[in-house]
Amino acid sequence: MNVAGTGMPSHLWFVVSNITGADRVVIVNVSSDDEGLGDLDTLVAADHPWLTHTSSYIRTDRALLATVASLTHGLAAQPAALIPQAPALPATLVKLQTALANSQHTKRGIKRVLVEQPTYDRPLKILRELGAQIVGLSCDEEGLDPEALEQALREGEKPAFLYLIPTFQNPSGRTLSEERRLRIVDLAREHDLLVLEDDPYGLVRFEGEPLPSLLELSGGETAYSSSFSKTIAPGLRVGWFVLPEDLAREIELTATSTYITPVLLGQATVHEFVSRGHFEPNLERVRELIGQRRDAMLAALERELPNVRTTRPEGGYFLWAELDGVDAGDLLARAEQAGVTFVKGTDFGGPADSLRLAYSFVSVDEIAEGVGRLAAALPAAV
Predict the structure, then answer these.
(1) What CATH number is given to the structural domain containing 100?
(2) I want to staple 350 with a disulfide (CB 3.0 to 4.6 A). Which of 9, 118, 194, 339 is the partner?
(3) Which has more pLDDT, 247 or 203?
(4) Does the residue 347 lie in any domain?
């Protein structure tokens, strides 16, 4: 039972007919006879905004993206600053690779990168493969500690960039407070530091008020990315960047040389889905269903493991647990024998007695059962 391990959303969140309907419209609309895809000349003549190539990248409906960003994120982004991105991992690779390659400090042989500790494991793996020197910055219940950032900026070589997930962070579920967001923006401006703000979960909020992005607070000086995979359907693997102009040009070039072109059918399906008015109703459905699962996990933890410290996220997919000295690796082996799993905190740069629990994938009843199995695998003293 993969109760607490995977960060994938449940298929129950999504109204399949809305997605397949949008997909079918995309295919039919570019066909001359409604029986299949037309040839390339038909596609180009149709001038579908999500399907037509230019010599360097795809020509997209950036005005549509700007509308989505404005309505749902509060981002006052100009369409020209918006770039659709490919599936999450290739896009993250392109983003990090480009930021490293274009840093003046990297060109002098320096690849120092600042991240939250803990942080999402995939960027950590990518950065290691790129040869980066990763510096983890301490976090607490309000997110990244600005004092830790300031100290890192004053000590050692100037970093290439700061990568962070300020809202419903993966893996902790924490959200960076507005006061700290303002301080981090000030520090970035003071030290000429590029900030890469990753925000795949920000729209999946089921309580509390949204906070301004670092992009907004910086007046567009930071780089921002988000995704439709958490709000429409995970299999579409479509998202977007909002970037400073110079970085936007470099990322387009790097993307073209890395994976040639994004998933055009997926982008076209997103375009149709949003244009037909499905996006906001679907988002409300996602928020309601995942909020129920978050509540179920918190209730189960309070009932089964009242002494275990956990975060209480106001949105997103995950929460973080600390086990007071119990090795999470040893616990994982016992838990898997009992039919339940999670991700060790050390995978994200966290301490050995920490772990990430995901409430996004399975039902409320399965969450209750899974937490019960996890509790049975722990020492009685916990």
Answers:
(1) 3.40.640.10
(2) 118
(3) 203
(4) no
Residue pair 3/340 in contact (Cβ under 8 Å)? The answer is yes
CB neighbours (10 Å) of residue 354?
22
Cα–Cα distance for residue pair 175/355, rounded to 1 Å: 18
Under DSSP, the state recorded for 170 is T
| Bridge partner list, 211 | none
Whether the CB-CB separation of 44 and 52 falls below 8 Å is answered with: yes
Query: Do the Cβ atoms of 221 and 184 come closer than 8 Å?
Result: no
d(CA 327, CA 197): 31
> What number is the average pLDDT over the span 70-84?
56
Per-residue pLDDT tens over the stretch 125-172: 989 988 899 999 999 999 999 999 999 999 988 999 999 999 999 999
In Å, what is the CA distance from 148 to each residue of 73, 152, 162, 180, 215? 28, 6, 12, 12, 21
Q: Which of 169, 158, 164 is nearest to 95 (CA)?
A: 164
- The answer to whether 377 touches 17, Cβ cutoff 8 Å, is no
> Is residue 120 assigned to a domain?
yes
Give CA–CA dist 221/201, Å, rounded: 21
Please count the other Cβ atoms lying within 10 Å of the Cβ belonging to residue 296.
19
**Is position 345 within any domain?**
no
Judge if the upstream peptide bond of residue 146 is cis by omega within 30 degrees of 0: no
* Range(s) of the domain holding residue 81: 54-275
User: How many domains, the chain?
Assistant: 1
Distance CA 262, CA 86 (A): 5
Q: In this structure, is residue 75 part of a structural domain?
A: yes
Q: Would you call 219 helix, strand, or coil by DSSP?
A: coil
